[in-house]
């Protein structure tokens, strides 16, 4: 399937990742640089900001690589990224525990509301379309 690379926008044949082979290669090179950087014991717990500064890699990009599961986080405990919704540091998924809980509740509430609206609108749906014509 042809798709646009989510990193550089180039059209490529999508297999499993949303980025093109060139960008995957770039990702792997960057991952290798970060792994090498974290190899010495004293660097293993270096915070993201320091890695970013020393290697000249944007923090967002490092966070993205962590999210893509390029790193064994039990070996690199400092590789955490921010929850999409708040400033809590996480190592898994997109949201911290409390935000994903909140989101799930919101989703449930929205679903219930939608179902209720559907019931309330029974029979009046045609009216909606007529008024738009
Ligand atoms: Zn690309
Ligand atoms: Zn959160």
UniProtKB/TrEMBL annotation:
Residues 114-133 are annotated as: Disordered. It comes from the Bacteria. This is Flagellar protein. It comes from Aneurinibacillus danicus.
